[in-house]
Every structure is written in C-alpha cells, then in structure tokens.
Amino acid sequence: MPENKRLRALANVIKLAAGIPTISSEYRKITSFLQYLKLFVAGADGSYFYGLYEPYSRGRDGGMPDPADTITLSPQIRSQVDRWVHLLRSTAGMFASDVLHPQPPAAAVPTLHLYSDAALEGAAVPGLGGYMHGFYWAVALQGDEVRLPISVLELVAIGMNLVLFEELARGAHCILCSDSLNSVQVLTNLRAKSPLMAHVHLLILQLPQAKSLGGATAAVHCFGPANPAADAVSRGNMEYFNALCSQLGVVPVLQSTKSARQRSLLRALQRSPSLTTRKCG
C-alpha cells in the first residue's frame, strides 16, 4: 500500500478522533476510502466498520443526510475511529505475496522518509520546506531569520519536520533525509562545534515530538538531486512540485504552519537575537 494513501487515511481518522466537525459528504469520502484500503491493510477485518455507516441513515425518513449536514460522532463511532488510528499507525499494509499463503498475512511496519531543505541564495522567497510521501509544508523566512547561516536553517528544517509530521509518523520507523551533511553529522554524532548549531540541536532534543519518535528515528545524508520535493517547496516552486507529485502518483497534502507551536524552532531563535550575529563553523 503506498504510504501516501495510508497517511491520507490516517490524517482523516485522526481528525475524526479529535472531534473536528465533518460534513456528511466528507464523512462518506473517508469511510469509502477506508473500505477501499481494507484489502491492503493486514488485520482490517469487517469489525472495523461496525457502526461507521450509521450516519448514512440520519436523513429524512431514514435516508441519506444532506451532503452539507454536520456529522456528530456517537461513542461507538469514536471507538471505531480510535481502532483505525491504532491500526493505520502500526501497519504499512501487507506483502502482495501473502495472498498465496493460507496463514494470516504478516503486517509490515511503516518506514517513512522525511525530507527537508532550506533555501537562501537563488530563491525568489527564502524559506524552509519539508516533504513526507506527498505531505508537505513551507515557511517563508522573515526578518533576522534570513541572516542565519544555511546550515543552521537546514537543521531547523529537520526539527520542523519532526514538529509537523510527528502525529502521522508516530509508530513508524522514520528516516530524516537532508542534503546538509553538517546537520546530519550533528544529529548522528550528537555533537556540534558551532554555538548556533549546538543551540538548535538542543532545541530539537527538547521537542516532545523528538522524544515521542525516539529511537525509531535515524538521520541520513542525501545529495541535492535526491531531494527535489523539499527543495521545490522551500523555494516556493509549486508548479514543479505539483508536477513531481503527479509523476510520483501521490496526492499533495499541505500541513499548516500557522501556529506558534509549529514555528517553535524559528521563534526560539528569534528570542535569542544575539545568536543571529554569530557564524556557523
């Protein structure tokens, strides 16, 4: 099962579990998508759909509700949604060859690649960006942020990937991919020479999202040509990014970066203005 589909389904059921208001037409899309994925998710038997179709009969005379009606989730639906969250976090599907064997299929543990990048020179709007199997985010740099060394920004982008993608990546083996060798070495060796890099590294280590993913996370270096998606969104090149997603066969999904929590690393640096005048070595 493609990770983009699993993550889209997971994002949908997380929203339902959080009690976010959902209209009838959107609820039908979510349940239909889960039904489609059922064949590819080990352990997703028919019991996972008990009660999920009950809202279909809330319309007049027991018929379908109006597409714009808001669906209120019953306790049974909430319980079922929580089961789906746990299932989709814990399995990436099953191997195709499993259908040839009589024993129950073995679930494959998800492995996610989280790409990040920072752009200063050559970018129409300097920024940071991240990409994970179709899910992406982008932040334009502001004020003193553009004075930070590129290596520091690359490390900040890795940290923001953890902040923005942790909820979807929880339970998976995560590989943090960056074309900044300096940043990868800091995360791998747990040591930074530059005061700025050390400051950002400490902020990352203190993130609850980093603690949540813990030992299931590894950092690897990838050369620039192997990081086209994050590079494109960090530069605001959305036309190229959308074309790339089309070629990859994934649906792009934007992650919001509006809250202070989601810009926590950059805001922490802004609270230490003296750091922006130092050089990164």
Write a brief caption for the model.
It contains 10 helices and 8 strands. It is an alpha/beta fold.
Explain what the structure shows.
With 281 residues, this protein is α/β, with parallel strands linked by helices. It has two domains: 98 residues, no CATH class; 167 residues, Nucleotidyltransferase, domain 5. It is 41% helix and 14% strand. It has a six-stranded mixed β-sheet with strand order 7-6-3-4-5-8, with helices on both faces. Strands 1-2 form a two-stranded antiparallel ribbon. Helix 1 packs across helix 2 and helix 4 packs parallel to helix 6. It is globular. It starts with a helix and ends in an 11-residue tail after the last helix. The C terminus is likely disordered.
